[in-house]
Design brief:
Elements: E1 3-9, H1 13-23, E2 28-34, H2 40-46, E3 52-54, H3 66-81, E4 87-92, E5 95-97, H4 101-110, E6 114-116, E7 120-121, H5 122-125, H6 128-135, E8 138-141, E9 149-152, H7 163-174, E10 196-197, E11 203-205, H8 206-218, H9 220-226, H10 236-246, E12 251-253, E13 257-259, H11 277-281, E14 289-291, H12 300-309, E15 333-336, E16 339-342, E17 345-348, E18 356-360, H13 366-375, E19 379-384, H14 390-396, E20 404-408, E21 410-411, E22 416-424, E23 442-451, H15 453-459, E24 467-470, H16 476-481, H17 485-490, E25 493-496, H18 507-520, E26 523-526, E27 538-541, H19 543-549, H20 553-558, H21 564-614
Parallel strand pairs: 1-2, 1-4, 2-3, 6-12, 13-14, 18-19, 18-24, 19-20, 21-23, 24-25
Antiparallel strand pairs: 4-11, 5-14, 7-10, 8-9, 15-16, 16-17, 22-23, 25-27, 26-27
Helix pairs in contact: 3-8, 8-10
């Protein structure tokens, strides 16, 4: 597969050289856009390969500016001018592959013809303020520094007539004026498209690149509109690609780059360091690259990835759970009559589309993903304290995002803004109490917010919790011993991984919890996951659930109903079908969104145009 990498670079020539050399093979071409503010000679001296082209037409790039789009377009046009085939892959000079070149080739070949880009309706990803600022306000840069800009509405917007806006106008005037006369016109998104947004980074077929450039040639007003857009790189291409998808001209899959966001409101991703290595090498097949790396912060992660990538590549064979693997984390599902075990957590099969599930210790999101796929639960709350795992969870539950709330925090006995959380080599084994760890090396200590069960109840709006899953590395004893009769009334089932196996002298703590929860009225059940640790998989449920679903333990075990294997297969098949249905629903919703958008656009813009006409503006 021919790969044409368009690389947007602005810093660190040695790191850029390493990126190019790592990606270089016999079917690869590089088109490097170097920020006009940089000295190109230094970069050209380090990277002197026959398949590398430094773009002659360069932009002075600024964060959130149309210059980033122009830089990408320069690369796209250069690829077409050279008559290349295959894929155009847009990456940053601070990206790095987390799969080998052979694995990248294998994935692109198996999915040949698809375009890889993240698309969401603008209202789903951006706040109302950011959405209005990007769509209807004019962006003026005060300098090329990150975030040194202002967003100013048209004089016909009520927001213009405020001291805050007039102060921003004054800043622009002091800075050279800009083209403030543009404020005499309303700024509205073109009616022939629906605004869709997503990650700046994508991989598109040459045919799709041609269609995008053809669209821009036929709609020159679209580029003119985006001249004043904030973060045009995150919705200019995406809105066109959504149009191409709706009209059946392209086929889409999720993008190929893992971006290490700590928080949805951050303006820049976190730097990936060596402590992220285990997380990176376990990424799904479709995540071929990651960002953001910085050799000046941590060079070790580059060596780790190079060693891993250099291992011989073995293509995975297709199997039942590998189907649609780019959306599904690995998970084990076992069924024993009315008991289901997912990733060593057993619970009674009493969930449905009205259920609320709370996942304390979400790890990578595998448990919650399976629960959502099997039961389409109304709400699932995932609580995870390790900041490295938050983006992984969000990626794994992406198809169900409207039903999921991911809370980056620890669960504990008392609320605290900052608690020391000790990260280990295995991200899932990180913990608060360092004395419990006897097998993992500690990487670093981070400060994490700690919440309580009362906070969880607020998030569920005090509705019943049908299933509480607990896997919190030794914090379970303190949490569960604090549950009261009121908690018993709220929570139907609790599935727990007790961590006395880390220190067998602590088994008394587990037995204290069992005694406490049974005194509240819960029925204690040994889980079905086989382990040397007696309480590794433990279930507590209300008596009425036990009576309805497990009237006799021995009768259940001796029953000759449908075999376990058949039920396992049935649930896994249901999981796959559910996700395929969601993909179809998303495509249907896109068409509905376009209809609504066109209707609202007409209702809002028509009166403003009449007023503008009366005032003499076109």
């Amino acid at each position: 597969m021919v790969k044409n990498y368009i690389i947007l670079a602005h810093t660190n020539p040695t790191q850029l050289q390493r990126l190019v050399e790592r990606l270089d093979d016999s079917n690869t071409y590089f088109y490097i856009h170097l920020d006009l503010k940089c000295d190109i000679a230094e970069y050209q001296a380090k990277i002197d390969l026959p398949n590398v082209a430094f773009l002659e037409q360069r932009e002075k790039c600024a964060w959130g500016d149309i210059s980033l789009v122009n830089a990408s377009l320069n690369g796209m046009r250069a690829v077409l001018k050279d008559g290349r085939k295959g894929y155009c892959i847009l990456i940053s000079g601070q990206d790095y592959p987390i799969k080998s070149n052979a694995a990248i080739d294998d994935y692109l070949t198996k999915n040949d013809g698809y375009d890889f880009v993240d698309l969401k309706p603008i209202y789903k990803l951006w706040s109302n303020y950011r959405m209005r600022g990007s769509i209807n306000f004019y962006k003026f840069d005060l300098s090329t520094q990150r975030n040194d800009l202002v967003l100013i509405p048209s004089i016909f917007c009520k927001e213009f007539w405020s001291l805050y806006t007039l102060n921003n106008v004054w800043k622009v005037l002091k800075n050279g004026g800009g083209k403030l006369t543009t404020l005499l016109k309303n700024r509205n998104f073109p009616e022939y498209l629906v605004p869709y947004v997503g990650s700046q980074w994508w991989a598109l077929t040459i045919e799709t690149i041609e269609k995008i450039l053809d669209f821009l040639e036929k709609h020159k007003d679209y580029m003119q509109y985006h001249r004043y857009s904030f973060c045009a790189d995150e919705f200019l291409f995406h809105s066109i690609i959504n149009y191409l998808s709706e009209t059946g001209q392209v086929k889409l899959k999720t993008n190929l780059t893992f971006v290490n966001w700590k928080d949805i409101d951050d303006t820049s991703p976190q730097i990936i360091e060596a402590s992220y290595f285990e997380q990176l090498i376990q990424m799904p097949d479709h995540q071929l690259f990651a960002r953001k790396f910085d050799m000046e912060v941590d060079e070790t992660i580059f060596d780790q990835l190079d060693n891993f990538i250099s291992q011989p590549f073995q293509p995975q064979r297709n199997n039942l759970m590998a189907k649609n693997s780019q959306e599904r984390p690995s998970a084990t599902i076992e069924v024993d009559f009315d008991l289901i075990t997912v990733n060593h957590h057993t619970f009674i099969n009493a969930l449905d589309h009205n259920s609320t599930v709370v996942d304390l210790g979400g790890n990578r999101g595998g448990f919650s993903k399976v629960i959502l796929g099997l039961f389409s639960c109304k709400k699932v709350i995932v609580v995870e304290g390790n900041p490295q795992l938050i983006p992984v969870i969000k990626n794994n539950v992406l198809l169900y995002e409207e039903q999921v709330e991911v809370i980056p925090a620890l669960i504990g006995p008392a609320y605290s803004e900052k608690v020391d959380f000790h990260l280990t080599e295995d991200p899932e084994a990180s913990l608060v109490d360092k004395s419990l760890n006897h097998t993992q090396n500690f990487i670093k200590t981070v400060s994490v917010k700690m919440i309580t069960m009362d906070y969880i109840y607020q998030r569920t709006e005090n509705e019943k919790i049908d299933l509480l899953k607990v896997d919190i590395e030794g914090m379970e004893w303190e949490i569960l011993n604090k549950l009261t009769k009121a908690d018993f009334e709220r929570i139907d089932q609790i599935t727990v991984e007790f961590h006395d196996f880390l220190d067998p002298t602590l088994i008394y703590k587990t037995e204290e919890v069992i005694g406490h929860l049974t005194s509240l009225g819960y029925q204690y059940i040994e889980g079905k996951y086989e382990s040397d640790a007696k309480y590794y998989d433990t279930l507590f449920c209300k008596p009425e659930l036990y009576a309805k679903h497990i009237t006799s333990w021995e009768t259940m075990k001796n029953s000759e109903n449908t075999s376990t294997n058949e039920k396992n297969h049935g649930l896994k098949h249901k999981l796959i079908q559910r996700e395929e249905e969601l993909v179809k629903q998303q495509n249907h919703h896109q068409k509905e969104i376009k209809t609504i958008h066109n209707s609202l656009s007409w209702k809002v813009t028509t009166p403003l145009r009449k007023i503008s006409s009366l005032l003499g503006f076109k």
